[in-house]
Design a protein that fits this description.
Elements lengths: L7 E3 L2 E5 L5 H10 L1 H4 L17 H14 L3 E7 L2 E12 L5 E8 L8 H15 L5 E6 L4 H10 L2 E12 L2 E11 L7 H10 L2
Parallel strand pairs: 5-6
Antiparallel strand pairs: 1-2, 2-3, 3-4, 4-5, 6-8, 7-8
């Protein structure tokens, strides 16, 4: 299997490359979930040179970055319907083999275990096929939904980063979580499913 493009599935959840045909569903989800996502969405600090781009330009940029191996952005489908995104950012090669993961989900799919499965699929792909060794997730302390995702996945908290990312119009503190390949030798999805079967 190659690192990109790839389509991965676990039950009703599929992760796959974002495409031009996702434009309407993506825009609808973002519009419908403005209040739900705004407190957690990355923003651009004042004075930065960032012009809004079209959805087509976004997809082109993400595909180019994926081919270069610097970012892998996945659409999440639930039963064939667009539900959100998981993005592997800041891929560092060389001696680090490290990346960060960020994600967002349409509120209508919240509470169904969608995001833990999507993140597990992506982390397993990063470890087995993309050749990464460590994945980090940065979460605002107030973001209880996102904290629940890393809790379900069993990621360790490794630090606290004051003023870490520009979110919702200001520099925000984040809790840092991480996992290495050695911590889930059988795969994160298998570990999640095994844990759920014992609940």
């Amino acid at each position: 299997m190659r690192a990109w493009p790839v389509r991965l599935t676990a039950g009703e959840v599929t992760v796959r490359p974002l495409t031009y045909s996702d434009a309407t569903a993506w825009r609808d989800a973002r519009r419908r979930n403005v209040a739900w996502l705004a407190p957690w969405d990355a923003t651009v600090p004042p004075g930065s040179d960032s012009r809004p781009s079209s959805f087509r330009a976004l997809v082109r940029r993400l595909h180019r970055q994926a081919r270069q191996g610097t970012t892998y952005s996945f659409a999440i489908d639930v039963d064939g319907r667009f539900a959100g995104q998981v993005t592997v950012n800041n891929v560092v090669r060389g001696s680090a083999q490290f990346a960060s993961i960020g994600y967002w989900l349409d509120q209508r799919y919240a509470g169904r275990g969608v995001m833990p499965r999507a993140v597990a699929l992506v982390v397993d792909h990063c470890f087995t096929t993309a050749g990464l060794h460590r994945i980090e997730v940065a979460i605002r302390p107030e973001n209880t939904n996102s904290l629940r995702v890393v809790e379900k996945l069993g990621l360790r908290e490794v630090g606290y980063a004051p003023k870490y990312l520009h979110i919702d119009g200001d520099w925000r503190d984040h809790r840092l979580y991480a996992i290495t390949r050695e911590e889930c030798p059988q795969g994160l999805l298998r570990r999640l499913e095994s844990q759920q079967s014992h609940e």
